[in-house]
Automatic annotation (TrEMBL):
Protein name: ZMYM2-like/QRICH1 C-terminal domain-containing protein
Keyword Phosphoprotein: yes
Coiled coil (UniProt feature): none
Ranges annotated as spanning the membrane: none
Stored Pfam families: DUF3504
ZMYM2-like/QRICH1 C-terminal domain span: 40-192
Keyword Iron in record: no
Keywords assigned by UniProt, alphabetized: Isopeptide bond, Phosphoprotein, Ubl conjugation
């Protein structure tokens, strides 16, 4: 006998379908109240006020840059952040306004794009300068100032391990080694999600 097909189980199937609909309405993230959405300016300001985002600390700065790049470029923190190279992102200028912006020039593979040249975007993603505390260009510059010069080659890893043994007052916050696989970036986004009631997903801030 087959519970999915036999007529004798028809009533049971109806009960299961009804229960499934009830659970979807209560817990699904699709179009329900838990659906992820873009952060409001006030919510973003709150993150900076709480010190969860900013450039005052090596770990916070690293997470803030990762969050900003994920927000504008749409890559996933756990996978694509490890693939990102220093030469993939650069400061450029808008050809129309001459305003500064961050430009993502190379895509090294994602869940939907394989980085093999066959799944290219129609344009390079950018993040415009805003000239305030949340300015993506200023965050990138601050991040660059704390990177070892040797790790600013085009093929160097973008996110580096934090140098916890640096001398007091040293402006070089990161080691000459890539960030490990067991990073805190994904858990950081989960923390933001809990604090502001599912505003960002674990894998991406899109």
């Amino acid at each position: 006998m087959n519970i999915l097909q036999d007529q004798v189980f028809a009533k049971s199937r109806e009960v299961l379908i009804a229960k499934k609909r009830e659970l979807v309405q209560q817990h699904a993230e699709g179009n329900g109240p838990q659906a992820c959405r873009e952060l409001t300016t006030a919510e973003e300001d709150k993150f900076f006020e709480l010190g969860l985002l900013g450039k005052h600390d090596p770990e916070v700065l690293q997470k803030t840059v990762c969050w900003a790049l994920s927000l504008h470029f749409g890559f996933r923190t756990r996978d694509e952040s490890r693939k990102l190279k220093w030469g993939d992102v650069s400061i450029s200028k808008d050809p129309k306004t001459s305003s500064e912006l961050l430009l993502w020039k190379a895509e090294r593979g994602s869940k939907t794009r394989h980085g093999d040249g066959q799944h290219q975007r129609a344009f390079y993603p950018t993040a415009q300068a805003t000239h305030n505390e949340r300015c993506r260009v200023q965050l990138y510059r601050a991040f660059s100032q704390h990177q070892p010069d040797e790790m600013k080659q085009s093929d160097s890893s973008f996110f580096l391990a934090i140098n916890h043994r640096r001398q007091p007052g040293s402006q070089i916050w990161y080691n000459k080694a890539p960030l490990g696989k067991k990073t805190k970036l994904a858990s950081f986004f989960r923390r933001l999600r809990k604090l502001l009631n599912c505003l960002v997903t674990t894998q991406t801030t899109r």
